[in-house]
Amino acid sequence: MKKYSIKDIAKLSGVSVATVSRVINNNGRFSEETRKKVLKVIDETGYQMNYSAKSLRMNKSFSIGILVPDISNYFFSDVVQKIEEILFDKGYSTIICNTTRNNEKEAAYLQMLESKGVDGLIVISGANEFGFDYTRSEKDIPYICIDREPKDKDSTVFISSNHYQGAFEATEALIHSGCKSPVIAMHARRSSSGKERYNGFKDALKKNNIAFSKEKNVLIADIHTEDFPEVISKFINENPVDGIFAINDSIAMELLQKIAKLGKKIPEDIKVIGFDNMPQDKYSSPTLSSVKQDTDKIAAAAVDSLLKIIASPGETGDAILIPVSLVVRESSL
Amino acid sequence: MKKYSIKDIAKLSGVSVATVSRVINNNGRFSEETRKKVLKVIDETGYQMNYSAKSLRMNKSFSIGILVPDISNYFFSDVVQKIEEILFDKGYSTIICNTTRNNEKEAAYLQMLESKGVDGLIVISGANEFGFDYTRSEKDIPYICIDREPKDKDSTVFISSNHYQGAFEATEALIHSGCKSPVIAMHARRSSSGKERYNGFKDALKKNNIAFSKEKNVLIADIHTEDFPEVISKFINENPVDGIFAINDSIAMELLQKIAKLGKKIPEDIKVIGFDNMPQDKYSSPTLSSVKQDTDKIAAAAVDSLLKIIASPGETGDAILIPVSLVVRESSL
């Protein structure tokens, strides 16, 4: 039996190789008529898709991989879904890989995405800079980073919310509504966005002539540990806390509850502002003020940048900083 | 140049073909020493992974696809993450595809997963029965269904929470705390789990000799539409509502807020119970009672069933029904 190539299939169907590829991958735009024609030829010839990861990549697979640390996190799932929507409209499938902040897992998923021949990669968040340290084909896959510094800044685009601005504005909002001694509540884990938020908080204190000390103005707490309530209680009893900027809404939500249990009133005794503007912020008691990230713009910039890099490797743009906005609710009035 | 096969690589490395496959896919267990040895041989021979989707599947790709309608939904993301954890420990990568309840998208992702050569497929939820209608290679990929009826019950395993039991117990809890006229609040969208919850509600009324009518006991409302507040307000003003079983927590959460705005007290005037036990249930005011699904057990049963079907095609088990439990909080006291 003659072995048919994708070129043969294209010729016999009277369409381009790109169209055959799109039909095979069911990606991109083609008519039902074209689909039937190509599939008929494939059936008649017994054509088997036979490709190496590399050649598949050169032909384009119309699939994009996303590495995300935690799909149960509202911000991450929101951005990922919006990216998926845009990519699908452009004819790309999205492969979502959940790395659970685990380096070994990230390495495994990178290898898998390479072996599946994705056209590009979107890397969201993570503790360290991102690079292709684990794989054998460095820089082979075009990629862009959201909320994570790339190691090799010349080969990619770095996209993030203006976390610094969000933290700065939230902290100034606390100060302007009378807080003399604002505190930042954060987890011990470091991320590029976390560092920016920390810096924004510190600079807002500085600008308003409030002395900063790690002991009095920084509350490190992990909401997933058992001693979280004691850590909060101890910190609030030992320090003159009247305002808290929580580095994310999960921490802020826990604070609302724990502070109420300590007999303090929010916002009268202590004002609280979170980060991410999760849907549940409007259901808590009191409702939670929070910094809102513009996930529509982040998703659009991510897809736009990645497709540009895929089309013209080497042509990378500057880092893209997306503005954020403060949503004021009862907890900081 | 001689063309090397995976068998040649295995021979030259002194390991099995399965080990070479695991190293290439960076999946499963192997030592760092083995990895280096195999990669050295691959580099020296210039071996290119060259496989068709079919043969790759026969060699096993150690990857599993998941079709999920909405990763921003708490229950879905929780189950998906738990499945991913178990699969990764067993040496499998998980490819998550977000279908946004869109049939065209589901078809495209099914095609993509086939072309990427996944070993198996987990299908979560969806309006219709699941079958391989869209693809050319029916039944080629072993699959199991969670919360979605498979078309061909003999080739798969159907796993779900006992939605009927959860709805029945929630409704009886309302009745036992004094509700004379319980209502089910649900969206217009139909799903297999939604139908079961509806039946559980109706049967609880029947058992307790409460007459059921679609007009008085069923509140159809979509929280994403603008007229949601009016729909709620009209229904509550026109009917003697004293208890609501909401088919999910998103609806329940909106009800808590809208009912309070109508000047009614929860739980004194109207008791509310939701479904899914989302993390935010404990932050709302009042805190929300809800039916909890056992996502640990669902994930474990899903992986276990799928790997059995992959290992022994044709040997499928009975449907698996996972018990649920009612978590009582302030909203139904």
UniProtKB/TrEMBL annotation, chains A, B:
CDD domains the UniProt entry points to: HTH_LacI, PBP1_Qymf-like
Keyword Nucleus: no
SUPFAM superfamilies listed in its UniProt record: lambda repressor-like DNA-binding domains (SSF47413), Periplasmic binding protein-like I (SSF53822)
UniProt keyword Transmembrane, yes or no: no
Segments forming domain HTH lacI-type: 4-58
Cited InterPro entries: Cro/C1-type_HTH, HTH_LacI, Lambda_DNA-bd_dom_sf, Peripla_BP/Lac1_sug-bd_dom, Peripla_BP_I
Xref: PROSITE patterns: HTH_CROC1 (PS50943), HTH_LACI_1 (PS00356), HTH_LACI_2 (PS50932)
Domain HTH cro/C1-type: 2-48
Pfam families: LacI, Peripla_BP_1
Keywords, comma-separated and alphabetical: DNA-binding, Repressor, Transcription, Transcription regulation
A molecular function (GO) term: DNA-binding transcription factor activity
PANTHER family linked to this entry: LACI-RELATED TRANSCRIPTIONAL REPRESSOR (PTHR30146), RIBOSE OPERON REPRESSOR (PTHR30146:SF95)
Name of the protein described by the UniProt record: Uncharacterized protein
Organism: Enterococcus malodoratus ATCC 43197
